[in-house]
Structure formats: structure tokens, C-alpha cells
Design brief:
alpha/beta; binds 3-methylbut-3-enyl trihydrogen diphosphate; binds magnesium ion
């Protein structure tokens, strides 16, 4: 059991390793993306049970648009289908659903479907589930800087797509890679990192619990010294 004060408010996951998971099984990469949906379900449930308030999931980066057309379109279809299938469960569990990123690059149909679910779940007060889609950290800082200048303002934070959401306390990356891959460049200023070799489609509640245990043992200092 982790003490409630040691539970992170915001957990973020770089969901990596779907392609390798599929390839290990002699299947096409997209098979791994489809399998990853079950992991999303498991961690969403796990975070809600553990009292995490925000769960953000890096689902698709701006750079991922450069993958083969077929993989990109399968990923977008999967997003569409999963939202439709999970909608009732989200409502039942009081989950607020949001999608953040460069939404202008999404198809109008997908963008509209997302907006509908965001609207329908806006008043839910349980876990906030945030899908980072067509997102990159540099893009976010750039668009925020532009809008800040236009507004003649001096604080960047209210213009980031994550405005109003506390910075991630914990960032987990699966699949053994140890890099940020243009994810939360601004928001990760004081995040704790947990890297695991587990491939995303194999990630379950036990893996989430292990990462939260590790987080609970960390000492955060924010540049200051221990009292
Ligand atoms: C993560 O898995 C999902 C996305 C980036 C969309 P990958 O597709 O990157 O899988 P690997 O890293 O090639 O195994
Ligand atoms: C990062 O994974 C992006 C997502 C998980 C959505 P990538 O697989 O795209 O990252 P690199 O290319 O290995 O750095
Ligand atoms: Mg990858």
C-alpha cells in the first residue's frame, strides 16, 4: 500500500514498444497498436483505483505523422473505434476525457468525434484521462509563444495546451528506451522518470503499481535542500 500523500497527482506514460511487441510475434506493427488498447484500459482503471487525478498518455507524436500511411491511418481508426467503444465506461466511471495536441492535423471527422466526447464528459469529476495526440513539446512551446505574443502577455504557461493541468509528477516510458522523444519539454521540468523494459501491450496494473512504488521512494527537492 502506498500512502495517499505519496500518490502522484498526475501520471504520464510514453506508451512505447507496440511495433516490437507485434514483430516478436511475427505480426505486423499495427497488431501491436491494437493490443495496446487493453493496456490503456488497465492503466486507466488502475489510476482511478489508486486515486491519481490526471493520467496523460502519449499516443501519437507530431513526428509519428512521418510513418507509413497505412500505419498512421490504422492508428487514427483505432483512436476513433476505441473512443466509441469506451464511451459508456468513461461515463459510468466519471472519467473526464480530453485530447491535447495539434488537433488541426486530425481529420475533421475524428476531431469532431473527440469534441463530442470531451463535451459529454466535461462535467465528470473522477479521473481526467488525457490523450496526447499529434503532440510534440517543441510544437506546444512554439504555439504558446505565438499566442502569448499576440495577447501581449508575459507568462507562457496559460497558453500551453496543458494549461490548468498540473505538471506530471511521474513520467513512465515503456520498452526500454530512455529518452523524451519531444514529449513534455516544458512540463517535465521537475517530473520523476521511471523507465521499464516492459513493452506497452504487456503493461498492466502490476506494472503501474511498481512504477508508483518507485515514485513513492523518490525524494523530490525542486532545487532546494532537505530540511
Ligand atoms: C508506440 O509504439 C506507439 C506509437 C509511437 C504510435 P511504437 O509504434 O513506437 O513501437 P516500437 O517502438 O516501434 O516498438
Ligand atoms: C514516442 O515513441 C511517441 C509515442 C509513444 C507516441 P516513438 O517510438 O515515436 O519514439 P522514438 O522514435 O523511438 O524516439
Ligand atoms: Mg517506438
Amino acid at each position: 500500500m502506498i500512502k495517499p500523500e505519496k500518490i502522484p497527482v498526475h501520471v504520464s506514460i510514453i506508451m512505447d514498444g507496440n511495433g516490437r511487441w507485434a514483430q516478436e510475434r511475427g505480426k505486423e506493427r499495427v497488431y501491436g497498436h491494437a493490443a495496446g488498447v487493453e493496456s490503456v484500459r488497465a492503466v486507466t482503471e488502475g489510476c482511478a483505483e489508486l486515486g491519481v487525478k490526471y493520467l496523460s498518455l502519449f499516443a501519437f507524436s507530431e513526428e509519428n505523422w512521418g510513418r507509413p500511411e497505412q500505419e498512421v491511418s490504422t492508428l487514427m481508426k483505432l483512436m476513433f473505434k476505441s473512443m466509441e467503444e469506451e464511451f459508456d465506461t468513461l461515463m459510468k466511471n466519471g472519467v473526464r476525457f480530453r485530447v491535447l495536441g495539434n488537433r488541426a492535423r486530425l481529420s475533421p471527422e475524428l476531431d469532431e468525434a473527440i469534441s463530442n466526447i470531451e463535451r459529454a464528459t466535461a462535467a465528470n469529476t473522477g479521473l481526467t484521462l488525457i490523450i496526447m495526440l499529434s503532440y510534440s513539446g517543441k510544437w506546444d512551446i512554439q504555439q504558446a509563444a505565438l499566442r502569448m505574443a499576440e495577447a501581449g502577455a508575459h507568462d507562457l504557461e496559460p497558453f500551453l495546451v496543458t494549461a490548468g493541468i498540473p505538471d506530471p509528477d511521474l513520467i513512465i516510458r515503456t520498452s526500454g528506451e530512455k529518452r523524451i522523444s519531444n514529449y513534455f519539454l516544458w512540463q517535465a521540468a521537475y517530473s520523476e522518470f521511471v523507465f521499464t523494459d516492459t513493452l506497452w501491450p504487456d503493461f498492466r496494473k502490476e506494472n503501474l503499481s511498481a512504477a508508483l512504488q518507485e515514485f513513492a521512494s523518490r525524494k523530490r527537492r525542486y532545487g532546494k535542500i532537505d530540511k
